[in-house]
Amino acid sequence: MASVSFSEIFKSFGKTKVLHGISLDISDGEFMVLVGPSGCGKSTLLRMLAGLEDIGAGSIAIDGRVVNDVEPKDRDVAMVFQSYALYPHMTVRDNMGFSLRLRKEKQSVIDEGVNRAARILNLEPYLHRYPRELSGGQRQRVAMGRAIVRDPKVFLFDEPLSNLDAKLRVAMRSEIKALHQRLKTTTVYVTHDQVEAMTMADRIAVMNDGRMEQLGEPLELYDRPANLFVAQFIGSPAMNVFDGVFRGGFVEALGARWPVPHTRASDGQAVKYGIRPVHFELNKKQIQAEVIVVEPMGAETELLLKVGDQTLVIMTHGRAAVGPGEKIFIAPQAEHAHLFDAASGKRI
Amino acid sequence: MKRIGRDAWLLLAAIPILLWTLLPIYHIFLFSISSKDSAFSGALWPDKPTLRNFGTIFRQEHFYLHHFWVQIWNSLWIAVAAGVLTLAIATCAAFAISRLKVKGGRTVMNLALFTYFIPAAFLAIPMYKAMGIYGLLNSRWSLVLAMVTLAAPYAIWVLKQASDKLPYELDEAARIDGATPPQLFRLVYLPLMTPSLVAIGTYALLLAWNEYLYAYLLLSHEQTITLAVALGHFIAADDSPWELLMATGLVYALPPAAIYYAFRRYMVSGLTAGAVKT
After folding, report:
1. So what's the ipTM on this one?
2. Nearest chain B Cα to A75, which residue?
């Protein structure tokens, strides 16, 4: 186990700058998720940590030792790839024991390591099989097994669940989390799926366009997004955001007055008003809206509403007794509203 | 109905092609089981089929066949050496260009392919001179080296295309697992490339086995020539022993046929591997 530290990391591919000075400290045993849209540089950052990509400028340290010029094999990290990257010509047992074999460990040590990992991941019945004879979920577990066997200082996951179907993804998510709780190995996990990030991470680093937008615990990011990007990226369905003007303790927007949690904005300031779909109350006479679409999901109902010329998404618990075209009243919960500066997008 | 119609058309096209291919082989076979007198009778099957021609060959009982065993050994030696050497060079080159992404790798490959702009026959005389300078004329190595020169560019190209298709993550996974480039080559690359390697090895081997022009130029002594060149000597005389020529030809054709049959599974997938750039 080890801490990981990125400091002032820059990287370009040709003339394209992909990372603009990322600094991030990951503590021993932490589960850190790097999340962001594709092309934001999160995978590049992970690959640099693995040693698969040169570091443009800055330094990366594992356990206090700068590893910029250290070969991947000498960094004591294990990586799980999106495509699994299992050796097709080796059985599950050989795949998992490959790193130990390269280290010239004794056969008994290799067997012990492989058996232990297989036990943890319920792979014992499949040890003699080839990757092509396994399902997607099993392959993913073998890839994880290969990482576990090495007992590395840091686990690296590069979008490991992207190739799985939705149901399996949820199951594997819990498995990875359980595995981390059991092994307590420092983990860096890259994904573009904010749900994965929210459910698995100790802390999340939200990245966009080669910069880190915000770093924090999942609920901290959800409750207090630092800017518009994080506000709209974290949370599903995404936060409703629209333009308004702060005046007299309210935000005037879409022909209505929207309540705010504080009055830190100055009078007449152009703002973006943000509120999550779950933070509305229905039928409290405040703002009138027209129902466009009703999406019942059993436990909750998603309503697509029109207020002024803006469409808003609202989630209500239970069933909603309304239909398309009907007029209803909605009341945003002031304490859960967010204000952002219209120009900079920063939280007010 | 439509399907049957299409199948019928295919069959109609296939039968003449098959006959076109098989007739000469049948002709060779017919000659080789005929006696000298009946060889030119024009019958579809000889009156008295005989295997005596093969006895004559294997016992080296004819003037043209006095060195049969030495010559077929030469052919084999040269073909295997050319196959192995081509394979070794092309595999290493493809690995370096495709997997290690060595600087200038693409240029090397393009230059190699460029050699195919010049027909092999044009290169025969310069090659003869070069071998003369190195003192290799009349040595089996001269033909081996010439064959490797001719086969390697295509071999590199096919193997490079085939190795481009292996996912690069495998290399990265192996590197993180602790593999050095030689270990990556031996433990991951070679096993996964086996089908292409078999196909390319066979290609180079058969190219050398079937070679006539270069063999004829570079080797001239009875003891050093290949059987292909020796077969050419048969028709030098006015009264050629056609039945022996055909029988020897048939014997000469058997090893390639056997190799093709043994590796047919790899041939199709291996040789078409580089056909389409994906």
Report:
1. 0.82
2. B176
Q: Quick check: A88 and B192 CB within 8 A?
A: yes
Cα–Cα distance measured from residue B52 to residue B247, given in angstroms and rounded to the nearest whole number: 10
Q: In a mutagenesis test of the B interface, which of A52, A104, A110, A153 is the best target, namely the one with the most B β-carbons within 10 Å?
A: A52
Give the other-Cβ count within 10 Å of B45's Cβ: 9
Position B273 scores a pLDDT of 54
The count of C-alpha atoms lying within 13 angstroms of the C-alpha of A213, restricted to the half-sphere facing its C-beta, is 28
Q: Is A92 helix (H, G, I), strand (E, B) or coil?
A: helix
Range A4-24 average pLDDT: 91
Instruction: Work out the minimum CA distance from A208 to partner chain B, whole angstroms.
Output: 25
Q: What span, in angstroms and rounded, lies between the C-alpha atoms of A148 and A140?
A: 12
- Going by C-beta distance under 8 Å and a sequence separation of 6 or more, which residues neighbour residue B173? A79, A81, A85, A86, A87, A146
Q: Give the C-alpha separation, B81 to B147, whole Å.
A: 10
- For chain B, percent helix, then strand, then coil, each to nearest 5? 75, 0, 25
Q: Are residues A73 and B175, on separate chains, in Cβ contact within 8 Å?
A: yes
Closest residue in chain A to residue B184, using alpha carbons only: A102
Coil, strand, or helix at residue A76? coil
Do A50 and B179 count as a contact with CB atoms less than 8 A apart? no
Smallest CA-to-CA distance from A339 within A266, A286, A278, A285 is with: A266
What are the chain A neighbours of B172 within 8 Å (beta carbons)? 50, 52, 72, 79, 81, 85
Sheet with A186-191, side-by-side order of all strands: A77-80, A154-158, A186-191, A31-35, A203-208, A211-216
Give this prediction's pTM.
Answer: 0.81
For B186, name the nearest residue in chain A, comparing CA atoms only.
A102
Q: Count how many residues are written for chain B.
A: 278
Has residue A86 got a pLDDT over 80?
yes
Asked if B35 contacts B189 with a C-beta cutoff of 8 angstroms, the reply is no
